[in-house]
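Fold it.
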Amino acid sequence: MDELTALKVAISPVDKFREFLAIQGKRLTQEREIIVEEVFSDHRHFDADELVDRLAYNDDGRRVSRSTVYRALDSLVQAGLLRKVARTNDRDVYEHDYGYPQHDHLICQKCGSLTEFHNDEISEILDEVSKSRGFRMSGHRLEVHGICEQCAQPKKRKQRLPGTV
């Protein structure tokens, strides 16, 4: 995966989520804060079960229930901190939406790998198409589905010994 450089943000993901929850009439519980801290501890794609596993095997003894993780992920998407990228293996895959530059994805239909990329020409074409149609674009999301280089490699066939069937 091409490594994206995090953007400088004025407010931390935890504080941004706290503000979002306050507007919703909710509070940032300890469990929600643990989830946000874990999600933003590094930049990688993940599904809810992977996050549950990461939290379950945390050495500090803090535990978060599976249902709390699923609800918090929905709230993080609504707050604009995360976004669902794709479904692989019948699971939603999430990534940071807050604090990272706009980018697109190549998604392998065989192994489920996601490769991030940024291409200014794609953005320029979309700007031109939008302007020509009087459309005010606020952003874009491109997911290209296909087969990755690794999965496209032909499998080596086992050679049979002479005299075997």
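The first strand starts at residue 46 and ends at 47.
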